[in-house]
């Protein structure tokens, strides 16, 4: 008996059904949050971070599955109605694309949450979540703006980064519900970069960076070349200033440890939004000098200039470094006095008084609190950011004692009451 070959349209429709079944089954596995992050890691998140994040991720997964079920039904109908075949093909392709977008979103947050691989890391990252939120609270409260929850995660590399709350994510229609801040391992226990990244979030919400850029342009009004050089850096400069206002010299020393690479310190890559590392360091030292007077930042600056004099830079860059260095105090003053639109024109330093993290203020905090500073839940809650500033200052100003202060900071950051599952206690 002769076997009849199915019509081409039926073959295509059946293949669409097969494809859809595969992708729909894969999408269904996303309903279990443990498919992309372990349950202990999820439990280590504070409720105000973990619950909204899981809820929004669950929503996009349900929407993906609904889309897939629609494509599946359409492919089934196309097997009986060839006129639906083109529509079914488009729907299946769109479903595949949406699957990839959702998977990318889930993988990002899964990897972020899953970086909490051990008890000490879960405790340290929860501490950073708390500090990041606290660093945004005072300014955004003054601006009458909501404070986004912060999700900190550990990754490799030399520099931190942020995926700001409120931006559009890979999945269509999804806005990022948290400020997702990457912390790198070498700075995990000296996390001044955390405040650089939270500064990006605050700057975006308050309109600070454009205003700071204008202030820098005005400070450099007599040199158009330097105006064109410095103005595009305003967003990163605002974040550097924000870190300085929170942690003082600790942020400057930590920044130099990142940018102080012989291969890149005086380079100016095309399109890089960051100031040249050499100038970032000078500006940080100038901020310290403008607020605190003389101090250990002078030695850091002298060491950098001795090791990396501006004339060793590329011929096209060296004159700009020299010209900028002469005007750095003027630029530092512009950074400290630039108006913030959301703060009704007040400068950021009016809300975040940098005197709170001066060496003398930190020494008084250390003296008055004694050993309780490193153990008390009260001090953790009320002085956590200044504790980071103190540990970073002590590590930077006395290299012989750096190991002690690194260890003390690590013990403080991991000395949490307990990870939620109770499997680890300090």
Strands ordered across the widest β-sheet: 1-3-2
Label the overall shape.
globular
The overall average pLDDT, rounded, is 93
Q: Flag low-confidence runs.
A: 417-426
How many beta strands in the DSSP annotation?
Answer: 3
* Percent of residues in beta strands: under 5%
Give the structural class: mainly alpha
Q: Helix count, per DSSP?
A: 17
The topology string of helices and strands comes to HHHHHEEEHHHHHHHHHHHH
Share of helical residues: 55-70%
Distance from N terminus to C terminus (CA atoms, Å) equals 78 Å
The Cα radius of gyration reads: 26 Å
Largest sheet: 3 strands, mixed
In short:
It is built from 17 helices and 3 strands.
Short key terms for the protein model shown above:
mainly alpha; 4% strand; disordered C terminus
List strands and helices in order, with pairings.
Blueprint: H1 8-28, H2 39-43, H3 47-78, H4 85-114, H5 119-142, E1 150-155, E2 161-163, E3 179-184, H6 193-206, H7 208-219, H8 224-230, H9 234-247, H10 249-259, H11 277-292, H12 296-307, H13 318-337, H14 348-351, H15 359-369, H16 377-397, H17 402-414
Parallel strand pairs: 1-3
Antiparallel strand pairs: 2-3
Helix pairs in contact: 1-3, 1-4, 3-4, 5-6, 6-9, 7-8, 7-9, 7-13, 9-10, 9-11, 10-11, 10-16, 11-12, 11-13, 15-16, 16-17
